[in-house]
Amino acid sequence: MTLHTALEDPAQPEILTLLRAGEEHSAQLYPAESNHHLALDGLRVSNVRFFVTRDDGRAVATGALVLHGSWGELKRMWVVPGARGSGVSKTMLAKLEAAALSEHVNVLRLETGVQNHAALGLYRRAGFMQRGPFGEYRHDPLSVFMEKELRGAPNSR
Q1: Crossing angle for the helix pair 88-102 and 117-125, to the nearest 10 degrees
Q2: What are the 10-residue block averages of pLDDT along the chain, 157 residues in total?
Q3: In the prediction, which pLDDT does 157 show?
Q4: In whole angstroms, what is the distance from residue 19 CA to residue 37 CA?
Q5: Distances, alpha carbon 86 to alpha carbons 26, 80, 81, 90, in Å
Q6: How would you classify the pairing of strands 107-113 and 71-79?
Q7: HSE-up of 60 (CA within 13 Å, CB side)?
Q8: Are 129 and 146 in contact (CB under 8 A)?
Q9: Which CATH topology does 3-149 take?
Q10: Rounded to an integer, what distance in angstroms lies between the CA atom of residue 143 and that of residue 148?
Q11: How far is CA 112 from CA 24, 34, 65, 120, 123, in A?
Q12: Is the pTM of this model over 0.85?
C-alpha cells in the first residue's frame, strides 16, 4: 500500500462517489435528523480543508477540517470498506491533526454516531474525549460528541 494524503477538490466524480457512500452508510444506521454531513458546497468554502488519501492513485479515504478560529471540527471522515483495517484512517486523522496545528487550532471537535464503533475506537485511541454538544449541535441520543486538545498548538495548555 502506497498512501498519499493531500488537499483536493471534493467535487471530483471519484470523490463524490466516496461522499455518497458515507451518506448511504449513515442513512442505514440513523434517521435523517441524526445525520450531520457537510454538503458539497460547505466542503468548498474558505474555512474548510478537504483531504483525500489515495493508494497508488485510487481514492480510499476522505476527511475535512472546518476551521472555527482556535478550534476545528472534523467532518466527512470516510474510508472505503476495502481499505479498512490497513491504517488509512490513522493516516487521515494524522493529516487532519497536522493541518489543524498548522492553522493554529488548539482543540479538535467532532460528532459521530453511537453505532460507529470503529470510528469511536479510532478517536478514543487518538486521545479524543467525550463531551457535550458544541457549535450548532443539540443533544441527540444517537450522537457522540468528542474533542481533543492539540499539543504543540500555539496557546495550548
Answers
A1: 50
A2: 92 95 91 90 97 95 96 95 88 96 96 93 96 95 96 59
A3: 44
A4: 9
A5: 22, 11, 10, 9
A6: parallel
A7: 23
A8: yes
A9: Aminopeptidase (3.40.630)
A10: 17
A11: 15, 10, 14, 8, 10
A12: yes
Cell numbers for 111, please give them. Answer: 460528532
The domain spans of the chain are: 3-149
**Which three cell numbers mark 101?**
496545528
Grid coordinates standing for 19? 461522499
Q: What share of the chain is helix, strand, coil (3-state, %, to 5)?
A: 30, 30, 35
Residue burial 108-127, b: 16+ Cβ < 10 Å; e: rest: bbbbbbeebeebbebbeeee
Q: Are 122 and 89 in contact (CB under 8 A)?
A: yes
Which set of grid coordinates corresponds to residue 148? 481533543
CA dist 60 and 52 (Å) reads 8
